[in-house]
Amino acid sequence: MKSQNKRSVGIAIALVGIMLVPATIACGKKTEKAVLAHAPNVPPQLNRSGNAKVIIELETKELKGRLADGVEYTFWTFGGTVPGPMMRVREGDDVEFKLSNHPTSKMPHNIDLHAVTGPGGGAAASLTSPGHSSTFSFKALNPGLFIYHCATAPVGMHIGNGMYGLILVEPKGGLPSVDKEFYLLQSEFYTSGKNGQAGLQAFDMNKALDEKPEYVVFNGSVGALIGDKTLKTKVGDKVRFFVGNAGPNLVSSFHVIGEIFDNVYSEGGSERNQKNVQTTLIPAGGAAIVEFKMEVPGSHVIVDHSIFRAFNKGALGLIVAEGEPNLAVYSGKQLDTVYLPEGGATQTIPADQAQKQMPKTKEERLVAGKRIFASVCQACHMSEGQGVPQAFPPLAQSDFLNADKNRAIKIVLDGKSGPITVNGKKFDSVMPALGLSDDDVASVLTFVLNSWGNKGGEVTLAEVASQRSGH
Ligand SMILES: [Cu+2]
To answer: Is 110 within 8 Å of 59 (Cβ atoms)?
Structure first.
């Protein structure tokens, strides 16, 4: 009797098992494979009505790659890239997730998707040894933008080595349509060598514990959104950024210089809950969706506004808009007048008196030039003229600068964009016109030519004047 009972229980379970299959078909969900996209690309909007069963397949792989110019790192990755690919599903979808760990991996890996409702966000269910695959399923209950990351011990090290990405759960009706969508993810790297030290770098646990990264970057490396990887748009485009912050430690003060976010979905939630935001805070292990319209042409710098991270540790990217200027929105520099605060009012000074204050000798030019360099040029070209790899070319020992004085004058007068090669390195960025007077241009270039191993010489007022009239 007992054994018979057991068998009937077994049969009952088998029947439930069989019945589950037709049940899923009966509720009419079609099955589709998720389209994954590598940053800065975003998977296409889901052009379907209703829900689906979505199959996501992802591979973990450990591989050597570029962290900065001349700096390599052995990244632990989802899908072979840092960040891992972005996924897009819809609220109510059933997701079947298959994680495979490449046979060459040295570590087991798993995945914790913040979009999962369930213990560990899938971590325990997906723990996978090298050369194995694991499958688990979840229902995407909550719409929003979510981080996913590896949660294998030591968790901080798996995240610190590059294992993270974004999954978007669209609300039932989808998101409002825009012209361009981009995927950005900020994270830190704790390398044994100091920032910029060449060669293959190891993970430094002590720096990670102290929360003192050598690199803070967007999309996995210094310069991943600069040069030929600058984000491209047109004037009038509505742009949407899906931004994640994987940490592992720092929060991000996400900002685009010269833009205001028209809409922010704070903390990656599903509500467009904020309007007209300058800087949005993205916690470690969090995300945000920001939207803005490209009103005017030109370059906008994408930064973590904890600003030394941007200009000294790598958290810097560019988005450029092409098109016609809109002078009603932004004029550029219209006027440069003398400002003399003495007596509390602006005065016009007689020309001969003004002339006296202008540097005449080369020595005076060097002094004035140094001051102008510090207040105008240094922000981009750095204090010793060393520049920033991928972003701002060096002025120190610059073969480009030393080869042609008149060309340098023209660049400082008019600005410069388009590809150039300086000391063997390619740059393709934008230097704005700076609105300096002829005298200031002469002084600052005289200073630059006589600094940091450049060839020396002098730039005169007449030389600047002839370049200004020469166009
Ligand atoms: Cu891992």
So the answer is: no
**Would you state the pLDDT for residue 471?**
52
CA–CA gap between residue 362 and residue 377 (Å, rounded): 20
Spacing, Cα 158 to ligand 1 middle (Å): 5
For ligand 1, the distance from its centroid to the CA atom of residue 460, given in whole angstroms, is 60
In which band, very low, low, confident or very high, does the pLDDT at 468 lie, cut at 50, 70 and 90? confident
> What is the crossing angle of helices 461-469 and 438-449, to 10°?
120
CB 382: neighbour CB atoms within 10 A? 17
User: Across the chain, which distance is largest between two alpha carbons, in Å?
Assistant: 118
Separation between Cα atoms, residue 231 and residue 222, nearest integer Å: 15
CA of 365 to the centre of ligand 1 (A): 57
Q: Cβ(34)–Cβ(56) under 8 Å?
A: yes
Q: Where are the beta strands (DSSP E) in 7-51?
A: 30-33
Write out the two tokens for 107.
């570590």
- Distance, CA 152 to ligand 1 centroid (Å)? 5
Is cis: bond before 248, omega within 30 of 0?
Answer: yes
Task: Provide the pLDDT confidence category of residue 6 given band limits of 50, 70 and 90.
Answer: very low
CA 208 to ligand 1 centroid distance, Å: 16
The residue type found at 328 is: A
For 381-432, how does the pLDDT look when each residue is reduced to its tens digit (9 = 90+)?
Answer: 988 999 888 888 999 999 999 999 999 999 999 989 889 999 999 998 888 8
Cα of 77 from ligand 1 centre, angstroms: 8
AA letter at 280: T
Helix, strand, coil share (%) of the chain residues, nearest 5: 25, 35, 40
CA distance linking residue 318 with residue 233, whole number of Å: 11
Question: Tens of pLDDT along 129-146?
Answer: 999 999 999 999 999 999
Please answer whether residues 165 and 146 qualify as being in contact, where contact means their C-beta atoms are separated by less than 8 angstroms. Answer: no
Query: Letter for the amino acid at 321?
Result: A
Distances (CA, A) of 116 to 14, 94, 425: 28, 11, 45
Q: Name the amino acid, one letter, at 365.
A: R
Rounded Cα–Cα distance for residues 124 and 155 (Å): 13
pLDDT digits (tens, 9 = 90+) for 345-385: 444 444 444 444 678 899 999 999 998 998 788 878 988 99
pLDDT of 9: 37
The pLDDT, as a whole number, for residue 346 is 43
